[in-house]
Amino acid sequence: MSKENQTAENRPFIVVAPNGQTLYLSDEYKNPENWAAKKTENATMLMARPQDSRKQDLLNQICAYIDENLSQRLTLRRISAQFQVSVSTITQLFQRRTNGTFHQYLTHRRMEAARELIRCGTAIEEAGRMVGYTDHSTFYRAFRQTFGASPREYRREIMTP
To answer: In this structure, what CATH number is given to the domain that contains residue 83?
Structure first.
């Protein structure tokens, strides 16, 4: 299947570790609806209606772009320029479809990728850089806020038999 024909449902979220190992994140994080379903009890209301397929396609393309460029500096302005839509359009898409913000979604994807990298043995600072954090303290705070433990605590926890 060509890259253009892939949808959020069949597009894997892939991270390549420094040792060359390819990591696939859980299926539950493949598309924005599943991410939203984890956040809200009434996820069915967040699913796209048929008349909104263009907007859903745009959101899927944006999410795919985010997944493929996690290590890059991603901002609403850069995404809006890349897809030639307004910042407002992207903001509304994420709010309506994921019940969250662009920034929350981006942070969530980065944290899931970082957790997987750490789980597979990547150095903590390297994992942070690989998912787009140039400042270790910012990465540390985001990780702790997302998972309730620092990256080191998480590593110790998963390594304890």
So the answer is: 1.10.10.60
